[in-house]
Amino acid sequence: MIGILVTIAVSWMLLYLIEKQSILALGILPLAKRLKQFSMGFLVTGILCVLVQYFEAYLKASTWVLNDTITTRIVFNSFWWDFKSVLTEELMFRGALLYILIHKIGSVKSIFASAIAFGIYHWFSYGVLGNVLAMILVFIGTGLMGYAWAWAFAKTKSIMLPFGLHLGWNLVYNTLFSKGPLGDLVLISQGGKELSDWFSLLNFTTGLIIVPLLVLIYVTYFVKKESDISATI
After folding, report:
1. Is the omega angle on the peptide bond into residue 212 within 30 degrees of 0, that is, cis?
2. Residues 68-95: pLDDT tens digits?
3. Residues 6+ apart with CB under 8 A from 146
4. Cα–Cα distance, 214 to 204 (Å, whole number)
């Protein structure tokens, strides 16, 4: 929690010193509209994540079963972990710095810069630094998704849609399907077989390339572009 507060404070300071804005410049208001954007983003990536996990289960001939040791407290703690990690990353990559960059160098260059930084960041968070092939694959996958989320910020002039898109994927992936670092949570995979090289590649490509492209299509064609970022306090 302290980390989030520090990130918010630093973001606010940068916005004030460079743009004479408050944290509200990140498009938190009007609240009802922003919550709707957040909810739509959460729904889009949440559904995509469910489809990807069941596609993998189909390829493996495995099933998802409810973890009979799960408790409400464990689910809440996992949700809170996902929420904090996503909010921190959004403030870092689709927050004050992206807002400032858009004002200084324009949307196109800023979105690319944000996507590249997001991809490089995941070399460290995924622990693949030094493994060239893994670094390339992680950079492509997270960079594409980072591009889609930065484009969402630029179009809506708000952090709320990319926050929803990010949390929808992470929460479903980590907490619902137990794919994150917290171990077995709500659903666990049971049975199945190892995928052959071609099926493994198909499964890998679906999550790494197809999902970010679908999110990008959603942001490009179904998200309304708002007017230029306006002054807020």
Report:
1. no
2. 999 999 999 999 999 999 999 999 999 9
3. 93, 114, 115, 116, 117, 118, 119
4. 15
Asked if 15 and 23 touch (Cβ cutoff 8 Å), the reply is: yes
Give the distance from CA 171 to its chain's centroid.
10
User: Which residues partner with 66 through β-bridges?
Assistant: 187
Helix spans in the chain (H): 2-14, 31-60, 72-93, 96-105, 107-125, 132-156, 160-170, 197-205, 211-222
Write out the two tokens for 5: 């507060």
Q: Are 146 and 155 in contact (CB under 8 A)?
A: no
Count CB atoms within 10 A of the CB of residue 197: 7
What pTM does this model have? 0.93
* pLDDT, tens digit, 9 for 90 and up, residues 145-196: 999 999 999 999 999 999 999 999 999 999 999 998 999 999 999 998 888 8
Q: What is the distance, to the nearest Å, from the Cα of residue 95 to the centroid of all Cα atoms in its chain? A: 13
Digit-coded pLDDT (tens) for 192-229: 888 888 878 788 788 889 999 999 999 999 999 987 65
Q: Which residues contact 128 (CB under 8 A, 6 or more apart)?
A: 122, 134, 135, 138
Per the structure block, which two tokens stand in for 4?
Answer: 């989030």
